[in-house]
Amino acid sequence: MLEFGPKSQADSRSFKSDEDRRVFLEQSFSDLVLTEIPESKREIRRIVSPLQTVVGEYLSSVNFVMDYLQLDFPGYGFTMNNWPTITIENRTLAHAEGGYKDALCSLIGETVMVVEQYWDTGLRLQFKNGSYINLSLRVERDFPSPEVATFHTPARGFAIIWSAGEEPFD
């Protein structure tokens, strides 16, 4: 399967065979050079995202700052310029709904069990109590901030930045 940018008419394509895929690529991309890596030389390496460092950490503070949110974990933190949804006790709350801030603050002291990041669905922090914080990373380029969110490690030595209309970078 091939995926194209967010403004593309056809966001993804599936091919019935590797040959169909090869023909499409050859016809569509004149400067593209594909080199087959022999199976004997292929390496499968697990790349651990820096986001995984918050797994096992507890949410230490929630800061509502005018038009963005800060979530702090011991030594780590997120700044979210796009308001996440909160799923707690099988109820999902958006920023404008009553009880949103209380639900988010009730997660203080809860331990993160899973962090997932997918460009199409966003960032999800799952807590030991079964609650979730879900942040959409897909916003249009006219989003009011150049950054959708940032993640930083201790002493702000490393950051992941999700920018409006672009894939994340570090």
Please, could you describe this protein's structure?
The chain is mainly beta and 170 residues long. It has 2 domains: 36 residues, no CATH class; 114 residues, no CATH class. It is 10% helix and 32% strand. It has 2 helices and 12 strands. Strands 3-4-5-11-12 form a 5-stranded antiparallel sheet, with no helix packed on it. Strands 7-6-10-9-8 form a 5-stranded antiparallel sheet. A hairpin with a 6-residue loop joins strand 11 and strand 12. The two termini are 26 Å apart. The N terminus is likely disordered.
For this entry, give a set of tags.
about 10% helix, five-stranded antiparallel β-sheet, elongated, disordered N terminus, 2 helices, about 170 residues, mainly beta
- The share of residues in extended strands comes to 25-35%
Query: Which sequence of SSEs, written as H and E, runs from N to C?
Result: EEHEEEEEHEEEEE
Main β-sheet description: 5 strands, antiparallel
Helix content: 10-25%
For the secondary structure, the number of strands is 12
Mean pLDDT: 82
Brief synopsis:
This protein is mainly beta and 170 residues long.
Q: How does the SSE layout of this entry go?
A:
Layout: E1 2-3, E2 12-13, H1 18-28, E3 61-65, E4 68-73, E5 76-80, E6 85-88, E7 91-93, H2 100-105, E8 112-118, E9 122-127, E10 132-135, E11 147-152, E12 159-163
Antiparallel strand pairs: 1-2, 3-4, 4-5, 5-11, 6-7, 6-10, 8-9, 9-10, 11-12
